[in-house]
Protein backbone atom coordinates (compact mmCIF):
# COMPACT_ATOMS: atom_id res chain seq x y z
CA UNK A 1 0.00 0.00 0.00
CA UNK A 2 1.30 3.41 -0.92
CA UNK A 3 -0.83 6.17 0.52
CA UNK A 4 -1.29 9.60 -0.97
CA UNK A 5 1.73 11.84 -0.65
CA UNK A 6 1.63 15.10 1.29
CA UNK A 7 4.32 17.70 0.76
CA UNK A 8 5.58 20.14 3.40
CA UNK A 9 7.98 22.97 2.59
CA UNK A 10 10.45 23.93 5.31
CA UNK A 11 13.23 26.49 5.30
CA UNK A 12 16.40 25.38 7.11
CA UNK A 13 17.23 27.48 10.19
CA UNK A 14 20.73 28.70 11.04
CA UNK A 15 20.49 26.99 14.41
CA UNK A 16 19.81 23.70 12.63
CA UNK A 17 23.28 23.72 11.09
CA UNK A 18 26.46 22.61 12.81
CA UNK A 19 30.14 23.55 12.43
CA UNK A 20 30.42 21.15 9.48
CA UNK A 21 28.35 23.75 7.61
CA UNK A 22 25.19 21.81 6.96
CA UNK A 23 22.15 20.63 8.91
CA UNK A 24 22.92 18.51 11.98
CA UNK A 25 21.59 14.97 11.60
CA UNK A 26 19.17 15.15 14.57
CA UNK A 27 17.31 18.13 13.15
CA UNK A 28 15.95 16.11 10.24
CA UNK A 29 13.75 14.33 12.80
CA UNK A 30 12.05 17.62 13.66
CA UNK A 31 11.28 18.08 9.97
CA UNK A 32 9.80 14.60 9.70
CA UNK A 33 7.57 15.41 12.67
CA UNK A 34 6.43 18.68 11.11
CA UNK A 35 5.71 16.79 7.89
CA UNK A 36 3.59 14.22 9.75
CA UNK A 37 1.60 17.12 11.19
CA UNK A 38 0.99 18.40 7.68
CA UNK A 39 0.07 14.90 6.54
CA UNK A 40 -2.71 14.76 9.17
CA UNK A 41 -3.88 18.24 8.36
CA UNK A 42 -4.21 17.42 4.65
CA UNK A 43 -6.64 14.68 5.68
CA UNK A 44 -8.84 17.02 7.71
CA UNK A 45 -7.59 16.30 11.22
CA UNK A 46 -4.68 17.29 13.44
CA UNK A 47 -2.24 15.31 15.51
CA UNK A 48 -3.05 17.70 18.35
CA UNK A 49 -6.70 16.70 18.10
CA UNK A 50 -5.71 13.03 18.11
CA UNK A 51 -3.93 13.59 21.42
CA UNK A 52 -6.86 15.56 22.79
CA UNK A 53 -9.10 12.60 22.07
CA UNK A 54 -6.92 10.44 24.32
CA UNK A 55 -4.47 8.83 21.90
CA UNK A 56 -0.77 9.31 21.28
CA UNK A 57 1.34 8.07 18.39
CA UNK A 58 4.92 7.86 19.64
CA UNK A 59 7.78 6.93 17.33
CA UNK A 60 9.15 3.47 18.10
CA UNK A 61 11.66 3.13 15.29
CA UNK A 62 13.34 5.49 12.87
CA UNK A 63 15.67 5.08 9.92
CA UNK A 64 17.22 7.92 7.95
CA UNK A 65 19.60 7.80 4.99
CA UNK A 66 21.31 11.12 4.45
CA UNK A 67 22.14 11.24 0.75
CA UNK A 68 23.47 14.74 0.44
CA UNK A 69 23.88 18.06 2.07
CA UNK A 70 21.10 20.24 3.36
CA UNK A 71 22.23 23.76 4.10
CA UNK A 72 21.12 26.91 5.85
CA UNK A 73 18.33 28.93 4.25
CA UNK A 74 17.53 26.30 1.67
CA UNK A 75 13.96 25.23 1.09
CA UNK A 76 13.43 21.56 1.51
CA UNK A 77 10.27 19.67 0.67
CA UNK A 78 9.37 16.67 2.80
CA UNK A 79 7.22 14.20 0.86
CA UNK A 80 5.31 11.99 3.32
CA UNK A 81 3.08 8.95 2.92
CA UNK A 82 1.88 5.99 4.96
CA UNK A 83 3.07 2.70 3.52
CA UNK A 84 1.75 0.23 6.07
CA UNK A 85 -0.98 0.10 8.69
CA UNK A 86 -1.14 -2.78 11.15
CA UNK A 87 -3.47 -3.46 14.08
CA UNK A 88 -1.95 -0.83 16.36
CA UNK A 89 0.99 0.52 14.41
CA UNK A 90 1.75 2.33 11.18
CA UNK A 91 4.73 3.25 9.05
CA UNK A 92 5.42 6.63 7.54
CA UNK A 93 7.88 6.97 4.68
CA UNK A 94 9.57 10.17 3.60
CA UNK A 95 11.65 11.68 0.88
CA UNK A 96 13.32 15.00 1.51
CA UNK A 97 13.86 16.92 -1.69
CA UNK A 98 15.96 20.02 -2.28
CA UNK A 99 13.38 22.68 -3.05
CA UNK A 100 15.52 24.32 -5.73
CA UNK A 101 16.90 21.33 -7.62
CA UNK A 102 14.32 18.65 -6.88
CA UNK A 103 17.10 16.25 -5.95
CA UNK A 104 16.24 13.68 -3.30
CA UNK A 105 18.63 14.42 -0.47
CA UNK A 106 17.26 12.13 2.24
CA UNK A 107 15.12 9.03 2.59
CA UNK A 108 13.54 7.98 5.85
CA UNK A 109 10.86 5.97 7.55
CA UNK A 110 9.35 5.89 11.02
CA UNK A 111 7.22 3.32 12.80
CA UNK A 112 4.61 4.51 15.28
CA UNK A 113 2.37 2.74 17.76
CA UNK A 114 -1.04 4.04 18.74
CA UNK A 115 -1.30 4.16 22.53
CA UNK A 116 -4.08 5.11 24.91
CA UNK A 117 -3.95 7.29 28.01
CA UNK A 118 -1.92 4.62 29.88
CA UNK A 119 0.69 4.59 27.09
CA UNK A 120 -0.34 1.01 26.22
CA UNK A 121 -0.80 -0.02 22.57
CA UNK A 122 -4.39 -0.03 21.40
CA UNK A 123 -6.03 -1.17 18.18
CA UNK A 124 -6.41 1.64 15.69
CA UNK A 125 -10.14 2.45 15.76
CA UNK A 126 -11.93 2.15 12.39
CA UNK A 127 -12.66 5.88 12.25
CA UNK A 128 -8.98 6.72 12.81
CA UNK A 129 -7.95 4.22 10.18
CA UNK A 130 -10.45 5.73 7.76
CA UNK A 131 -8.94 9.17 8.28
CA UNK A 132 -5.45 7.79 7.69
CA UNK A 133 -6.53 6.22 4.43
CA UNK A 134 -8.29 9.29 3.09
CA UNK A 135 -7.47 10.79 -0.25
CA UNK A 136 -6.59 14.38 0.66
CA UNK A 137 -7.96 15.57 -2.67
CA UNK A 138 -11.42 14.78 -1.34
CA UNK A 139 -11.04 16.58 1.97
CA UNK A 140 -10.71 20.13 3.16
CA UNK A 141 -7.45 20.53 5.02
CA UNK A 142 -7.59 21.25 8.75
CA UNK A 143 -6.42 24.69 9.79
CA UNK B 1 14.20 55.06 15.55
CA UNK B 2 11.61 52.37 14.97
CA UNK B 3 12.19 50.53 11.74
CA UNK B 4 9.52 48.93 9.63
CA UNK B 5 8.07 45.79 11.09
CA UNK B 6 8.33 42.43 9.35
CA UNK B 7 6.06 39.57 10.35
CA UNK B 8 6.94 35.87 10.21
CA UNK B 9 4.40 33.14 10.84
CA UNK B 10 5.70 29.96 12.48
CA UNK B 11 3.87 26.85 13.59
CA UNK B 12 5.13 25.38 16.87
CA UNK B 13 6.64 21.91 16.53
CA UNK B 14 5.96 19.03 18.91
CA UNK B 15 9.67 18.70 19.58
CA UNK B 16 9.75 22.34 20.65
CA UNK B 17 7.53 21.59 23.63
CA UNK B 18 8.69 20.16 26.94
CA UNK B 19 7.03 18.06 29.63
CA UNK B 20 5.45 21.20 31.10
CA UNK B 21 3.24 21.10 28.00
CA UNK B 22 4.32 24.28 26.26
CA UNK B 23 7.28 25.49 24.24
CA UNK B 24 10.67 25.18 25.96
CA UNK B 25 12.23 28.59 26.59
CA UNK B 26 15.32 28.02 24.43
CA UNK B 27 13.27 27.33 21.31
CA UNK B 28 11.99 30.89 21.17
CA UNK B 29 15.53 31.89 20.16
CA UNK B 30 15.27 29.75 17.02
CA UNK B 31 12.07 31.60 16.13
CA UNK B 32 13.73 34.99 16.63
CA UNK B 33 16.51 33.85 14.27
CA UNK B 34 14.02 32.71 11.65
CA UNK B 35 12.25 36.05 11.99
CA UNK B 36 15.52 37.96 11.44
CA UNK B 37 16.02 35.95 8.26
CA UNK B 38 12.56 37.02 7.10
CA UNK B 39 13.35 40.62 8.08
CA UNK B 40 16.40 40.61 5.75
CA UNK B 41 14.46 38.94 2.97
CA UNK B 42 11.70 41.56 3.12
CA UNK B 43 14.40 44.15 2.40
CA UNK B 44 15.71 42.35 -0.68
CA UNK B 45 18.72 40.55 0.78
CA UNK B 46 19.46 37.42 2.75
CA UNK B 47 21.51 36.79 5.86
CA UNK B 48 23.10 33.91 3.94
CA UNK B 49 24.25 36.39 1.30
CA UNK B 50 25.62 38.68 4.01
CA UNK B 51 27.78 35.81 5.25
CA UNK B 52 28.85 34.93 1.73
CA UNK B 53 30.09 38.50 1.30
CA UNK B 54 32.42 38.02 4.28
CA UNK B 55 30.41 39.34 7.21
CA UNK B 56 28.72 37.69 10.15
CA UNK B 57 26.24 39.14 12.60
CA UNK B 58 26.51 37.11 15.80
CA UNK B 59 24.19 37.71 18.75
CA UNK B 60 26.02 39.30 21.67
CA UNK B 61 23.09 39.86 24.01
CA UNK B 62 19.56 38.58 24.27
CA UNK B 63 16.61 39.36 26.50
CA UNK B 64 13.27 37.58 26.41
CA UNK B 65 10.17 38.11 28.52
CA UNK B 66 7.81 35.19 28.33
CA UNK B 67 4.35 36.59 28.96
CA UNK B 68 2.24 33.56 28.37
CA UNK B 69 2.08 30.09 27.02
CA UNK B 70 2.94 29.05 23.53
CA UNK B 71 1.75 25.56 22.72
CA UNK B 72 2.17 22.82 20.18
CA UNK B 73 0.60 23.33 16.76
CA UNK B 74 -0.27 26.95 17.40
CA UNK B 75 0.60 29.59 14.86
CA UNK B 76 2.70 32.35 16.27
CA UNK B 77 3.61 35.55 14.49
CA UNK B 78 6.99 37.09 15.22
CA UNK B 79 6.94 40.85 14.63
CA UNK B 80 10.51 42.10 14.10
CA UNK B 81 12.05 45.54 13.72
CA UNK B 82 15.41 47.25 14.16
CA UNK B 83 15.31 49.90 16.86
CA UNK B 84 18.91 51.03 16.96
CA UNK B 85 21.93 51.00 14.65
CA UNK B 86 25.36 51.97 15.98
CA UNK B 87 28.77 52.01 14.31
CA UNK B 88 29.20 48.25 14.27
CA UNK B 89 26.18 46.92 16.13
CA UNK B 90 22.42 46.88 15.89
CA UNK B 91 19.44 45.96 18.00
CA UNK B 92 16.47 43.91 16.89
CA UNK B 93 13.23 44.02 18.83
CA UNK B 94 10.46 41.45 18.68
CA UNK B 95 6.92 40.78 19.72
CA UNK B 96 5.59 37.27 19.49
CA UNK B 97 1.86 37.22 18.98
CA UNK B 98 -0.52 34.29 19.24
CA UNK B 99 -1.71 33.85 15.66
CA UNK B 100 -5.27 33.03 16.67
CA UNK B 101 -5.95 35.59 19.40
CA UNK B 102 -3.50 38.37 18.52
CA UNK B 103 -2.35 38.46 22.15
CA UNK B 104 1.29 39.41 22.68
CA UNK B 105 2.81 36.37 24.36
CA UNK B 106 6.48 37.32 24.33
CA UNK B 107 8.69 40.37 24.06
CA UNK B 108 12.37 40.20 23.21
CA UNK B 109 15.38 42.02 21.91
CA UNK B 110 18.79 40.96 20.63
CA UNK B 111 22.00 42.93 20.09
CA UNK B 112 24.28 41.94 17.24
CA UNK B 113 27.76 42.98 16.20
CA UNK B 114 28.89 43.00 12.58
CA UNK B 115 32.18 41.12 12.30
CA UNK B 116 34.54 40.45 9.42
CA UNK B 117 36.22 37.18 8.42
CA UNK B 118 38.49 37.35 11.50
CA UNK B 119 35.43 37.63 13.77
CA UNK B 120 36.51 41.18 14.70
CA UNK B 121 33.92 44.00 14.84
CA UNK B 122 33.83 46.17 11.73
CA UNK B 123 31.96 49.35 10.91
CA UNK B 124 28.68 48.69 9.19
CA UNK B 125 29.34 49.69 5.55
CA UNK B 126 27.02 52.39 4.18
CA UNK B 127 25.45 50.01 1.66
CA UNK B 128 24.64 47.49 4.39
CA UNK B 129 23.21 50.24 6.55
CA UNK B 130 21.08 51.42 3.64
CA UNK B 131 19.65 47.94 3.19
CA UNK B 132 18.87 47.73 6.91
CA UNK B 133 17.01 51.01 6.78
CA UNK B 134 14.96 50.18 3.71
CA UNK B 135 11.21 50.40 3.66
CA UNK B 136 10.20 46.88 2.62
CA UNK B 137 7.17 48.30 0.83
CA UNK B 138 9.53 49.74 -1.76
CA UNK B 139 11.53 46.55 -2.36
CA UNK B 140 10.89 43.17 -3.85
CA UNK B 141 11.49 40.50 -1.25
CA UNK B 142 14.42 38.15 -1.75
CA UNK B 143 13.52 34.55 -2.49
CA UNK C 1 21.64 38.60 48.86
CA UNK C 2 24.13 36.44 47.04
CA UNK C 3 23.46 32.76 47.57
CA UNK C 4 26.06 30.02 47.57
CA UNK C 5 27.44 29.23 44.15
CA UNK C 6 27.05 25.80 42.57
CA UNK C 7 29.25 24.79 39.66
CA UNK C 8 28.26 22.44 36.85
CA UNK C 9 30.73 21.19 34.25
CA UNK C 10 29.36 20.57 30.76
CA UNK C 11 31.11 19.48 27.59
CA UNK C 12 29.87 21.22 24.43
CA UNK C 13 28.24 18.86 21.92
CA UNK C 14 28.88 18.97 18.18
CA UNK C 15 25.17 19.42 17.57
CA UNK C 16 25.21 22.49 19.79
CA UNK C 17 27.46 24.34 17.33
CA UNK C 18 26.31 26.10 14.20
CA UNK C 19 27.95 26.90 10.85
CA UNK C 20 29.63 29.93 12.44
CA UNK C 21 31.81 27.37 14.21
CA UNK C 22 30.79 27.95 17.80
CA UNK C 23 27.83 27.18 20.04
CA UNK C 24 24.47 28.45 18.81
CA UNK C 25 23.01 31.08 21.13
CA UNK C 26 19.88 29.12 22.04
CA UNK C 27 21.86 26.17 23.37
CA UNK C 28 23.24 28.19 26.26
CA UNK C 29 19.71 28.10 27.71
CA UNK C 30 19.87 24.32 27.94
CA UNK C 31 23.10 24.64 29.91
CA UNK C 32 21.54 27.16 32.30
CA UNK C 33 18.71 24.69 32.89
CA UNK C 34 21.12 21.83 33.55
CA UNK C 35 22.99 24.11 35.96
CA UNK C 36 19.77 24.93 37.83
CA UNK C 37 19.19 21.20 38.21
CA UNK C 38 22.65 20.84 39.72
CA UNK C 39 21.98 23.83 41.97
CA UNK C 40 18.89 22.08 43.44
CA UNK C 41 20.73 18.80 43.80
CA UNK C 42 23.57 20.45 45.74
CA UNK C 43 20.93 21.54 48.26
CA UNK C 44 19.56 18.05 48.74
CA UNK C 45 16.50 18.18 46.50
CA UNK C 46 15.70 17.86 42.80
CA UNK C 47 13.68 19.97 40.43
CA UNK C 48 11.97 16.75 39.35
CA UNK C 49 10.87 16.23 42.95
CA UNK C 50 9.59 19.80 43.11
CA UNK C 51 7.36 19.08 40.10
CA UNK C 52 6.22 15.79 41.59
CA UNK C 53 5.07 17.67 44.68
CA UNK C 54 2.78 19.79 42.50
CA UNK C 55 4.86 22.87 41.75
CA UNK C 56 6.55 24.12 38.61
CA UNK C 57 9.10 26.87 38.24
CA UNK C 58 8.84 28.16 34.66
CA UNK C 59 11.21 30.80 33.31
CA UNK C 60 9.47 34.13 32.79
CA UNK C 61 12.44 36.25 31.77
CA UNK C 62 15.95 35.57 30.56
CA UNK C 63 18.97 37.72 29.78
CA UNK C 64 22.23 36.46 28.35
CA UNK C 65 25.38 38.37 27.46
CA UNK C 66 27.66 36.36 25.22
CA UNK C 67 31.18 37.62 25.89
CA UNK C 68 33.20 35.21 23.86
CA UNK C 69 33.21 32.04 21.92
CA UNK C 70 32.26 28.66 23.24
CA UNK C 71 33.34 25.86 20.96
CA UNK C 72 32.81 22.18 20.35
CA UNK C 73 34.32 19.74 22.83
CA UNK C 74 35.32 22.44 25.28
CA UNK C 75 34.49 22.07 28.93
CA UNK C 76 32.49 24.94 30.30
CA UNK C 77 31.65 25.52 33.92
CA UNK C 78 28.32 27.15 34.74
CA UNK C 79 28.48 28.98 38.08
CA UNK C 80 24.93 29.42 39.44
CA UNK C 81 23.49 31.26 42.41
CA UNK C 82 20.18 32.76 43.52
CA UNK C 83 20.40 36.51 43.97
CA UNK C 84 16.83 37.38 44.86
CA UNK C 85 13.77 35.63 46.28
CA UNK C 86 10.39 37.36 46.28
CA UNK C 87 6.98 36.16 47.38
CA UNK C 88 6.43 33.86 44.43
CA UNK C 89 9.44 34.43 42.21
CA UNK C 90 13.20 34.10 42.28
CA UNK C 91 16.19 35.12 40.23
CA UNK C 92 19.08 32.89 39.23
CA UNK C 93 22.34 34.42 38.10
CA UNK C 94 25.03 32.64 36.11
CA UNK C 95 28.57 32.95 34.90
CA UNK C 96 29.79 30.57 32.25
CA UNK C 97 33.50 30.05 32.46
CA UNK C 98 35.81 28.39 29.97
CA UNK C 99 36.93 25.26 31.78
CA UNK C 100 40.48 25.44 30.46
CA UNK C 101 41.27 29.14 30.81
CA UNK C 102 38.90 30.21 33.57
CA UNK C 103 37.80 33.18 31.45
CA UNK C 104 34.19 34.29 31.92
CA UNK C 105 32.62 33.80 28.52
CA UNK C 106 28.97 34.45 29.32
CA UNK C 107 26.86 36.17 31.95
CA UNK C 108 23.17 35.50 32.39
CA UNK C 109 20.17 35.67 34.67
CA UNK C 110 16.73 34.13 34.66
CA UNK C 111 13.56 34.99 36.58
CA UNK C 112 11.22 32.20 37.57
CA UNK C 113 7.75 32.10 39.07
CA UNK C 114 6.55 29.31 41.32
CA UNK C 115 3.23 28.01 40.06
CA UNK C 116 0.81 25.40 41.31
CA UNK C 117 -0.98 22.67 39.37
CA UNK C 118 -3.18 25.27 37.64
CA UNK C 119 -0.09 27.15 36.43
CA UNK C 120 -1.06 30.09 38.68
CA UNK C 121 1.60 31.84 40.80
CA UNK C 122 1.70 30.71 44.40
CA UNK C 123 3.65 31.96 47.40
CA UNK C 124 6.89 30.10 47.90
CA UNK C 125 6.20 27.87 50.92
CA UNK C 126 8.58 28.35 53.87
CA UNK C 127 10.05 24.88 53.51
CA UNK C 128 10.82 25.46 49.82
CA UNK C 129 12.38 28.80 50.65
CA UNK C 130 14.49 27.17 53.34
CA UNK C 131 15.81 24.64 50.84
CA UNK C 132 16.66 27.42 48.40
CA UNK C 133 18.60 29.28 51.04
CA UNK C 134 20.58 26.28 52.24
CA UNK C 135 24.34 26.28 52.39
CA UNK C 136 25.23 23.27 50.23
CA UNK C 137 28.28 22.64 52.40
CA UNK C 138 25.92 21.54 55.15
CA UNK C 139 23.84 19.18 53.02
CA UNK C 140 24.34 15.91 51.27
CA UNK C 141 23.70 16.34 47.57
CA UNK C 142 20.70 14.58 46.06
CA UNK C 143 21.49 11.78 43.64
CA UNK D 1 34.04 -7.76 14.60
CA UNK D 2 32.79 -6.36 17.88
CA UNK D 3 35.01 -3.61 19.16
CA UNK D 4 35.55 -2.71 22.78
CA UNK D 5 32.60 -1.01 24.38
CA UNK D 6 32.82 2.51 25.79
CA UNK D 7 30.20 3.77 28.21
CA UNK D 8 29.06 7.38 28.53
CA UNK D 9 26.74 8.54 31.30
CA UNK D 10 24.34 11.35 30.44
CA UNK D 11 21.63 13.00 32.52
CA UNK D 12 18.46 13.84 30.56
CA UNK D 13 17.73 17.58 30.36
CA UNK D 14 14.29 19.10 30.86
CA UNK D 15 14.53 20.71 27.42
CA UNK D 16 15.09 17.26 25.90
CA UNK D 17 11.59 16.16 26.92
CA UNK D 18 8.40 16.94 25.05
CA UNK D 19 4.78 17.32 26.07
CA UNK D 20 4.37 13.53 25.98
CA UNK D 21 6.48 13.60 29.13
CA UNK D 22 9.57 11.78 27.98
CA UNK D 23 12.59 12.52 25.80
CA UNK D 24 11.81 13.68 22.25
CA UNK D 25 13.04 11.18 19.66
CA UNK D 26 15.48 13.55 17.96
CA UNK D 27 17.41 14.21 21.15
CA UNK D 28 18.67 10.63 21.31
CA UNK D 29 20.86 11.51 18.31
CA UNK D 30 22.67 14.15 20.37
CA UNK D 31 23.41 11.48 22.98
CA UNK D 32 24.76 9.09 20.36
CA UNK D 33 27.07 11.88 19.15
CA UNK D 34 28.27 12.61 22.68
CA UNK D 35 28.89 8.88 23.15
CA UNK D 36 30.96 8.72 19.95
CA UNK D 37 33.08 11.58 21.31
CA UNK D 38 33.66 9.57 24.49
CA UNK D 39 34.46 6.50 22.39
CA UNK D 40 37.27 8.41 20.62
CA UNK D 41 38.53 9.85 23.87
CA UNK D 42 38.78 6.42 25.49
CA UNK D 43 41.16 5.48 22.65
CA UNK D 44 43.45 8.44 23.23
CA UNK D 45 42.22 10.82 20.54
CA UNK D 46 39.38 13.27 20.01
CA UNK D 47 36.92 13.77 17.19
CA UNK D 48 37.84 17.45 17.35
CA UNK D 49 41.46 16.52 16.66
CA UNK D 50 40.36 14.33 13.74
CA UNK D 51 38.64 17.35 12.20
CA UNK D 52 41.66 19.55 12.88
CA UNK D 53 43.78 17.09 10.92
CA UNK D 54 41.56 17.61 7.87
CA UNK D 55 39.03 14.81 8.12
CA UNK D 56 35.34 14.71 8.95
CA UNK D 57 33.16 11.74 9.76
CA UNK D 58 29.58 12.70 8.87
CA UNK D 59 26.67 10.38 9.61
CA UNK D 60 25.21 8.91 6.41
CA UNK D 61 22.65 6.56 7.91
CA UNK D 62 21.00 6.14 11.27
CA UNK D 63 18.62 3.62 12.79
CA UNK D 64 17.12 3.86 16.25
CA UNK D 65 14.70 1.51 18.00
CA UNK D 66 13.08 3.15 20.99
CA UNK D 67 12.23 0.32 23.38
CA UNK D 68 11.01 2.27 26.34
CA UNK D 69 10.71 5.60 27.97
CA UNK D 70 13.58 7.87 28.86
CA UNK D 71 12.56 10.64 31.23
CA UNK D 72 13.78 13.91 32.63
CA UNK D 73 16.59 13.81 35.16
CA UNK D 74 17.28 10.13 34.64
CA UNK D 75 20.81 8.92 34.11
CA UNK D 76 21.22 6.99 30.93
CA UNK D 77 24.32 5.07 29.90
CA UNK D 78 25.15 4.90 26.21
CA UNK D 79 27.19 1.79 25.41
CA UNK D 80 29.08 2.32 22.13
CA UNK D 81 31.21 0.08 19.94
CA UNK D 82 32.35 -0.15 16.33
CA UNK D 83 31.03 -3.26 14.63
CA UNK D 84 32.33 -2.81 11.10
CA UNK D 85 35.10 -0.89 9.35
CA UNK D 86 35.20 -0.70 5.55
CA UNK D 87 37.54 1.12 3.21
CA UNK D 88 36.15 4.58 3.93
CA UNK D 89 33.22 3.96 6.22
CA UNK D 90 32.46 2.52 9.63
CA UNK D 91 29.48 1.50 11.70
CA UNK D 92 28.87 2.39 15.31
CA UNK D 93 26.39 0.41 17.37
CA UNK D 94 24.77 1.56 20.59
CA UNK D 95 22.70 0.41 23.48
CA UNK D 96 21.14 2.98 25.75
CA UNK D 97 20.62 1.63 29.22
CA UNK D 98 18.60 3.13 32.07
CA UNK D 99 21.26 4.06 34.61
CA UNK D 100 19.13 3.03 37.58
CA UNK D 101 17.63 -0.24 36.38
CA UNK D 102 20.14 -1.39 33.78
CA UNK D 103 17.29 -2.06 31.35
CA UNK D 104 18.12 -1.55 27.68
CA UNK D 105 15.78 1.22 26.57
CA UNK D 106 17.13 1.92 23.08
CA UNK D 107 19.18 0.24 20.39
CA UNK D 108 20.78 2.13 17.53
CA UNK D 109 23.42 2.15 14.87
CA UNK D 110 24.97 4.82 12.67
CA UNK D 111 27.06 4.57 9.50
CA UNK D 112 29.72 7.20 8.89
CA UNK D 113 31.96 8.00 5.93
CA UNK D 114 35.42 9.48 6.33
CA UNK D 115 35.73 12.54 4.10
CA UNK D 116 38.58 14.90 3.34
CA UNK D 117 38.55 18.71 3.18
CA UNK D 118 36.48 18.60 -0.05
CA UNK D 119 33.84 16.45 1.68
CA UNK D 120 34.74 13.55 -0.64
CA UNK D 121 35.12 10.02 0.78
CA UNK D 122 38.70 8.99 1.42
CA UNK D 123 40.24 5.70 2.48
CA UNK D 124 40.66 5.43 6.21
CA UNK D 125 44.43 5.87 6.74
CA UNK D 126 46.14 2.97 8.53
CA UNK D 127 46.99 5.10 11.57
CA UNK D 128 43.35 6.18 11.94
CA UNK D 129 42.21 2.62 11.59
CA UNK D 130 44.71 1.53 14.23
CA UNK D 131 43.32 4.09 16.65
CA UNK D 132 39.78 2.90 15.97
CA UNK D 133 40.78 -0.69 16.71
CA UNK D 134 42.60 0.09 19.93
CA UNK D 135 41.78 -1.61 23.18
CA UNK D 136 41.00 1.32 25.49
CA UNK D 137 42.38 -0.63 28.43
CA UNK D 138 45.84 -0.18 26.95
CA UNK D 139 45.57 3.57 26.34
CA UNK D 140 45.34 6.68 28.43
CA UNK D 141 42.13 8.49 27.67
CA UNK D 142 42.36 11.87 25.95
CA UNK D 143 41.32 14.83 28.05
Attribute tags:
homotetramer; 143 residues; alpha+beta; Thiol Ester Dehydrase, Chain A; five-stranded antiparallel beta sheet; 3 helices; 20% helix; globular
How are the SSEs placed, and which strands pair?
Four copies of one chain form a homotetramer.
Chain A: E1 6-11, H1 27-42, H2 47-52, E2 59-66, E3 75-85, E4 89-98, E5 104-113, H3 126-132
Largest sheet of chain A: 5 strands, antiparallel
What number of structural domains do the residues of chain A give?
A: 1
Strand order of the largest sheet of chain A: 1-3-4-5-2
Large-scale geometry of chain A: globular
Q: Based on DSSP secondary structure assignment, what is the total number of beta strands of chain A?
A: 5
Residues in β-strands, percent of chain A: 25-35%
Give the overall pLDDT of chain A as a whole number. 95
Our Rg estimate of chain A from Cα atoms comes to 16 Å
Given as residue ranges, the uncertain stretches of chain A (5+ residues, pLDDT < 50) are none
The CATH topology annotation of chain A reads as Thiol Ester Dehydrase, Chain A
Secondary-structure arrangement, i.e. CATH architecture of chain A = Roll
Q: Which CATH class of chain A?
A: Alpha Beta
**Structural class of the secondary elements of chain A?**
alpha+beta
Distance between the termini of chain A: 27 Å
Helical stretch count of chain A?
A: 3
Order of helices and strands of chain A: EHHEEEEH
How much helical structure, as a percent, in the residues of chain A? 10-25%
